[in-house]
């Protein structure tokens, strides 16, 4: 019996997305030298370009780098965006603004593509941020104002996963206390961080456990060290070795596992953040699904209303320009008239002077 064509659909979709690959965009926020690049290289087991940034930038900037990674036969287009100069300015009150602007700009670019008459969303390079790793300094004390401000301004736009950077510099007992403190501060400040989903029963067990590890205590390294007869990613100290991929040394491997298993959920939640951005933007442009008397408004009506508004505005502008032009012309005419009158007066004066001279019989000017 011939197979129903619809049965081929899922395979076809899987093959298509494998062939075209998919993109995943990570934003790393953290002060200069907190270990953002080392963690990225450790997570994807690839040494990405890493040039240290200066401490003397007058404002926070963002650096974007895109890589194509091939894992078995799946192509991953990975974009890593990291902050430069975060926390280095004397006045840190506005440090979050360039980051918020960046996140919004990616939504805006997507919206523009979506609103084009001829859209190519399938081949469009989607740069919307799927996850934001927020690096907390391993002080063992509390979150800084800049941390609270930045996370609060981003939590409605992006999935935030807080991580404690350079976690090898803090002792085991202090780390547990620090983690608890951070979580309670986030709750008391009303900051929403990403929660690994627990509604799907295949992952609910592991995700509930993982939510309990937040914020992840991460360690990164650009180097591999020989342990036994194996080369492992690690940090070597005079007293021993911290292995990046050892779960009893740090949570880096947990973070990697969770990012991989929840990639689709992160992408889906990003779409939800985008939806609310889109909704706000379109509302500002005057588009509404429901009219004043709870009447549904069609897109055609909105476009027609906008067209009318535009025509009226254009007419008004033209009228104003015409008025301004006429005013200028009238002013010029008045000036010319005055000049002509003056010229006439002068002519008459000359004529009477000539007459006087002639009467005196002195000489003629002609
Ligand atoms: P900028 O781009 O300059 O802001 O730095 P970054 O945040 O990307 O930090 P990077 O990964 O370049 O690391 C800065 C320094 O910290 C390097 O000397 C790293 O070796 C070191 N480092 C990175 N990760 C860790 C870590 O987990 N623990 C420790 N102790 N040091 C680390």
From TrEMBL:
GO molecular function: GTP binding
One annotated Gene Ontology cellular component of this protein: cytoskeleton
Coiled-coil boundaries: 322-356
Keyword Cytoplasm: yes
Keyword Nucleotide-binding among record annotations: yes
Principal location listed in the UniProt entry: cytoplasm
Keywords of the record: Coiled coil, Cytoplasm, Cytoskeleton, GTP-binding, Nucleotide-binding
Localization in the cell: Cytoplasm, Cytoskeleton
Positions of the Septin-type G domain: 20-284
The family this protein is said to belong to: Belongs to the TRAFAC class TrmE-Era-EngA-EngB-Septin-like GTPase superfamily. Septin GTPase family.
PANTHER family: SEPTIN
Record's protein name: Septin
Source organism of this protein record: Catharus ustulatus (Russet-backed thrush)
Lineage: Eukaryota, Metazoa, Chordata, Craniata, Vertebrata
């Amino acid at each position: 019996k011939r197979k129903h064509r619809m049965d081929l659909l899922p395979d076809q979709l899987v093959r298509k997305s494998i062939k075209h690959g998919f993109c995943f965009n990570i934003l790393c926020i953290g002060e200069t030298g907190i270990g953002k690049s080392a963690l990225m290289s450790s997570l994807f087991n690839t040494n990405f370009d890493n040039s240290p940034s200066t401490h003397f930038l007058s404002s926070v900037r963002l650096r974007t780098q895109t890589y194509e990674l091939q894992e078995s036969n799946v192509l991953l287009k990975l974009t890593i965006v990291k902050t430069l100069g975060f926390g280095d300015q004397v006045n840190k009150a506005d440090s979050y603004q360039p980051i918020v602007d960046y996140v919004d700009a990616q939504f805006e670019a997507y919206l523009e593509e979506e609103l084009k008459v001829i859209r190519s969303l399938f081949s469009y390079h989607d740069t919307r941020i799927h996850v934001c790793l927020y690096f907390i300094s391993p002080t063992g004390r509390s979150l800084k104002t800049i941390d609270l401000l930045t996370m609060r301004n981003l939590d409605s736009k992006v999935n935030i996963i807080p991580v404690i950077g350079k976690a090898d510099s803090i002792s085991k007992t202090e780390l547990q206390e620090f983690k608890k403190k951070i979580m309670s501060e986030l709750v008391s400040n009303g900051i929403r961080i990403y929660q690994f989903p627990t509604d799907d029963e295949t992952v609910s067990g592991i995700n509930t456990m993982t939510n309990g590890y937040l914020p992840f205590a991460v360690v990164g390294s650009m180097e591999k060290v020989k342990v036994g007869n194996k080369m492992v990613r690690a940090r070597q100290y005079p007293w021993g070795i911290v292995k990046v991929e050892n779960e009893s040394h740090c949570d880096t491997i947990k973070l990697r596992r969770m990012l991989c298993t929840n990639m689709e959920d992160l992408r889906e939640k990003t779409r939800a953040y985008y939806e609310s951005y889109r909704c706000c933007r379109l509302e500002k442009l005057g588009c509404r699904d429901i009219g004043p008397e709870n009447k549904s408004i069609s897109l055609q009506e909105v476009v027609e209303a906008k067209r009318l508004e535009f025509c009226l505005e254009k007419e008004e502008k033209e009228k104003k320009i015409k008025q301004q032009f006429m005013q200028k012309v009238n002013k010029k005419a008045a000036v010319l008239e005055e000049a002509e009158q003056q010229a006439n007066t002068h002519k008459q004066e000359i004529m009477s002077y000539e007459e006087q001279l002639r009467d005196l019989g002195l000489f003629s000017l002609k």
